[in-house]
Amino acid sequence: MKTIKHLLFFSVFILGLLLLRHSAFATNYYVDGVNGNDNNSGTSINNAFKTIRKIVFNGAGAPVLAPGDNINIAAGTYRERLSIINRTNGTANNPITVRSYNGEVRIDGSAAVTSWTKVAGEIYKATPGFAVRAVVIDNTPLYPVAALGTAEGSIATYDTYAKTSGLWAESRYLYEPSTGDLYVWAPGGGNPASHSELGVINTAHDTSLMDIMLWDMSYWVFDSLTLQFGDEGIYVDGDAPAGVTLKNSIVRYHNWSGVTNVNIALNNSVYHSFMNNWPRGRWPWIWGGWGGGLTVNPNGGLAENNLVYMNGGEGILVYNSKSAAGGTIVRNNTVYNNWSMQLYFDNFPNGLMERNFAYSIPDNAWKTNNGQIANDYDISKRLRGTGIGLANEDYYQGYCALDNVMVRNNIVVGARQGIVYLAEGACSTVGLHNAKIYNNTFVVPNAKQPGLTESASTDNYKGFQYNWVADTVGNEFKNNIIYASDPWSWTIVHTGNNSVYSGFVFDNNLIYHSSRASNIYWNTPMTHATWLGLSGPSHGIGDVTSDPKLVFPYGFTAASCNLSDNTSPAINVGADLSAYLSTDYLGTSRPQSAAFDIGAYEYVSGAPIDTTAPAAPSGLSVS
Fold it and tell me: Which of 123, 220, 283, 504 fits as disulfide partner to 475, beta carbons 3.0 to 4.6 Å?
């Protein structure tokens, strides 16, 4: 018996050692693009590999990875495209981590373009060997020398562009398809190769051109990296990947999406993805087909504390899940100036969107080719993206899965539509199901929609829009602020059959318009009092229609939408939603007093409120 006990103890001891190997005995690999060599062991700083590919690619001589291993990369630029296929998976407790360890690591998916020759003045020419989508020099995306909506132009017309129309100027480029030549006038002039950063982005959309691509891989973590200039920044595919995490990273300047289908995205900055649509409104990307800046897996994913801006499609996107689970969370992100939706939940169930700040700055020329197309209505209307989009879009999936989503404690300022539901393709007759939209603040632009000539047009800016279909079930819109001031804007827009709006309850909201009495469009313009008097399910009960007294409604900070003082009519008049939320935008407990406040902020008596007028965001112009 004693021998058996000893054997059992010894077996458990050995098993414990094997489990500890994942953490205590994990291998640290090193990569140094300057001093490394791919013939080294890679297991110390002084014996580092030269390329990241040596470790992550399943090729001859690649090290055998194990859960818990770390790939530590020295600062520098690595012009590599990393395909991670048929490698070891990490585990939930011991992922495989790829990270910077002593400074900025840039993984550059573009091909080097060299051998520049001067053509005239500050214009240089090279032949990249591929079709060019975009050119970025010193963190500046260049404008094409061509009128938008047409071909990219021809070098045969160079003299005309340069000497008569004046389109040739600093920070411009021209790609000539017939010869394969690329002409560039770099910011500040000089040979493009002499600048600290040059990215020439390929037109082709292909997994072989992505900065990082993972197929059927799980529990890999990418930490503190800069991904740039490839077709996509990081792309995750395969059967039910799990635990693929991107954190503390910069993702910028990609032909297509910045981040696709990661499971977890934390503390990243994602900008200028989908360069197909640069400058904004570039043919044929005016109306649709965009990639997202940051796309998160719809089944149990998380996007938190990210900054996502100036992307050519959606900002943060979660879409398409056949699984009944869904459940992705989008929380505490700042999202602005993206072309389509800032925040988008499309065709998946059980999503949670909370404590996000989304905004669009006033219409301006930085998004377009020096304003050439600012008067084109189809384009100018998108110079302010939608704040929050909920949708069932089905053009090939075969299902319409958006259901049971929670949208709470978000702030949207200056968006074309504060929040909207879309049903498209095979889902065009499917309405919104069981959406709970609680305690958000929507500030409608203080401006007229460019290109419109009719104040009654429902294309004017609005806080909430729903194009009704009969299949609308179980939705609630409560404790929200909609603030509007321009005489042409709307608070609520509903189009469709009034007899089928039974699936939506609108109560206990603060709906305020400072200059338009009939600010609700319910198949026709009407006042709140008229709307309240319509027959049907509950709508307008417990509403407030007076000024909520926001600090600075049109500021570009979330704090601008706080309640300015204890006289705000939004205080203590909200519905009791304690079954659905217990905190506000800042995490402050609700309620603070007798009842819930309306809007994203719960007023805290005695708490300091910054009443300094915020400045518009800087650094958004492109010369």
Answer: 504
Question: Measured between alpha carbons, how far is 171 from 399 in angstroms, rounded to an integer?
Answer: 46
Q: Could you tell me if 49 and 30 are in contact, meaning their C-beta atoms sit under 8 angstroms apart?
A: yes
| Element holding 137 (H helix, E strand) | strand 132-137
265 CB contacts (<8 Å, ≥6 apart)?
Answer: 245, 246, 247, 259, 294, 296, 302, 303, 304, 306
d(CA 170, CA 121): 11
Q: Which residues contact 63 (CB under 8 A, 6 or more apart)?
A: 27, 29, 42, 55
> What pTM was estimated for this model as a whole?
0.91
CA distance 404 to 418: 20
pLDDT digits (tens, 9 = 90+) for 506-523: 999 999 999 999 999 998
> What is each CA distance from 507 to 236, 473, 598, in whole angstroms?
42, 16, 11
**pLDDT tens digits along 318-340:** 998 877 889 999 999 999 999 99
- Listed in sequence order, the residues at least 6 apart from 276 whose beta carbon sits closer than 8 Å to its beta carbon are 133, 255, 256, 282, 285, 290, 291, 312
- Give the single-character DSSP code of 142: P
Average pLDDT of the residues in 471-490: 95
Residue 27, exposed/middle/buried by CB under 10 A (0-12, 13-18, 19+)? middle
User: DSSP letters along 69-106, please?
Assistant: -EEEE-SEEE---EEEES-----SSS-EEEEESSS-EE
The whole-angstrom separation of Cα 144 and Cα 352 is 40
CA–CA dist 579, 583 (Å, integer): 11
- Look at residue 18 in the predicted model and tell me its pLDDT: 42
Residues 252-276 as b or e (16 or more Cβ within 10 Å = b): bbbbbbbbbbbbbbbebbbbbbbbb
pLDDT attached to residue 149: 35
Closest to 143 measured CA to CA, from 127, 166, 163, 159 = 166
Q: DSSP per residue over 234-267, as a string? A: EEEESSS----EEES-EEE--SS-SEEEESEEES
Q: Could you give the C-alpha distances from 89 to 221, 225, 244, in angstroms and in order?
A: 11, 20, 10
* Residues, the chain: 623
Higher pLDDT, 511 or 280: 511
Higher pLDDT, 513 or 164: 513
CA 521-524-527 angle, 5° bins:
60
Candidates 106, 96, 90, 86; CA nearest to 28 is: 96
Please give the single-letter amino acid code of residue 49: F
- Residue 114, CA atoms < 13 Å, CB-side half-sphere: 2
Going by C-beta distance under 8 Å and a sequence separation of 6 or more, which residues neighbour residue 67?
Answer: 22, 26, 88, 89, 90, 91, 94, 95, 96, 219
Residue 520's DSSP bridge partners are 492, 526
- Evaluate whether 29 touches 63 at the Cβ level (below 8 Å): yes
- Convert the pLDDT of each residue in 37-85 to its tens digit: 999 999 999 999 999 999 999 888 899 999 999 999 999 999 999 999 9
In the chain the first and final C-alpha atoms are separated, in Å, by 83
Query: Which residues, listed in sequence order, are joined to residue 510 by a DSSP beta bridge?
Result: 481, 544
